[in-house]
Amino acid sequence: MNVKYTIVFAYCALFLLISGCVTRTITVKTNPSNALVYVDDKLVGESPVSVPFVYYGTRKITIEKKDADGKLIRERKIAYEKIKTPLYEFFPLDFVSELVWPFDIIDDHVLYYDLAEVKQLTRKEQQKIVLENAQELKIRVDAPDF
After folding, report:
1. pLDDT tens across 92-143, in order?
2. What is the pTM of this model?
3. How far apart are CA 120 and CA 84, in angstroms?
4. In the chain, helix, strand, coil percent, each to 5?
5. Residue 63: enclosing H or E segment and its boundaries?
6. Neighbours of 132 (CB within 10 A)
7. Cα-atom radius of gyration of the chain, to the nearest Å?
């Protein structure tokens, strides 16, 4: 009787040792590189960057490129990317892909973004925009509430 349990235990241990796993990553590449990348409002690094994830679904990707002074030199880009669940991750196939399949499965989603240059405004243009925004805000403040 003890030999049976030992053999079953050995098979279970061997099964767990040879089983593979699914590695899920999102890779963000930008043109130009070295832009700051945020996934779901958390800084993950400079592009190109790969970040692991657990759950599929929509992710908020924010990219911005700043100079040494912290001023934007490329336009900030915000994108909502839907990371689709592959077929092998649906029940009951997920049991096989996660626990039974003896090889590692790499599920890498590569996202590529081009960042446009920020148009540099003259001091006069900046003042004009600030005054227009202030005038609009004054109108909103003076408007009666409905």
Report:
1. 877 777 777 777 888 999 999 999 888 777 889 889 989 998 998 888 888 7
2. 0.69
3. 38
4. 35, 40, 30
5. strand 57-66
6. 10
7. 26
